[in-house]
Amino acid sequence: MSTSINSILVPIDGTEQSVIALNQSYNLAHHTDAKIVLLSVEEESSSTSVQRKLAELAKEAAAKSGQPVETMIRHGNVYEEINKVSDVLEPLVMVGLTSKLSPGTIIGKNAFKMVRESKSPVMTIRGKYNREGYKTILLPLDLTKESREKVDKAILLAKRFNSTIRVISVLTQTDEEAESKLIAYSNQVWRYLRAHHIRSTVRIMRGTNPAKLILDYGYQIDADIIVITSKSVQNVKEFFTGTVAEQLINKSEIPVITYHPIERKDTTVFLPY
Description:
The protein is an alpha/beta fold. The chain folds into two domains: 7-125, HUPs (Rossmann fold, 3-Layer(aba) Sandwich), CATH 3.40.50.620; 136-259, 3-Layer(aba) Sandwich (Rossmann fold). The protein contains nine helices and ten strands. The protein has a ten-stranded mixed β-sheet with strand order 3-2-1-4-5-10-9-6-7-8, sandwiched between helices. The radius of gyration is 19 Å and the shape is elongated. 38% of the residues are buried.
């Protein structure tokens, strides 16, 4: 997918949270000159009332965002249809999620499956606070290849919104070599951000629950968004407890934007930061 945002896809399901997600799309659409596409997914043939409500919402969205707004009605499974439309539009997807879900729930699994399989970036929104911009970006780091790909994504976002990037790394291993590598990498990323003239800080923490530490720090610094990448492969423990990315999406009141990792044949190659 292109690094530019040409369209923002907002699934509308009649809940308050989907409207909150739509409201948060306005400022981003304005800054990126992107059109907004409202998607309603119905299990059966859509009624006239559904079409009318969607048209009214589109009219309101156009007035508030100052950007063109289109509507689309599809039929089927909401998560599958979101990804089918995304494959065509290549948008940024902004999804309002209604409650905190444990990784074991069916709905939670389906929602994260949609995020993980999407080729487009997906922003999930649970909180009620309408953020006008992204003054503070929280960037969790680890040593996986997927983690390294989001640094440039965060830089693009920071340059567009004049943001500060707060890097956080959580040491969970007793392996001193692995910890030394993570500390060195975190400092390397900090220097890379400074070279791009991005205001940034680095916080290194130790603990057994990375997702909780990341979220607690995010609330402490009043982060506006968390930038992550989905993990393509889960180990046995993650299958039952969820990856850190899945836990963040399921629990965070801070908007989380998830980027799909680039598929590589050689998984040992890291980007040169």
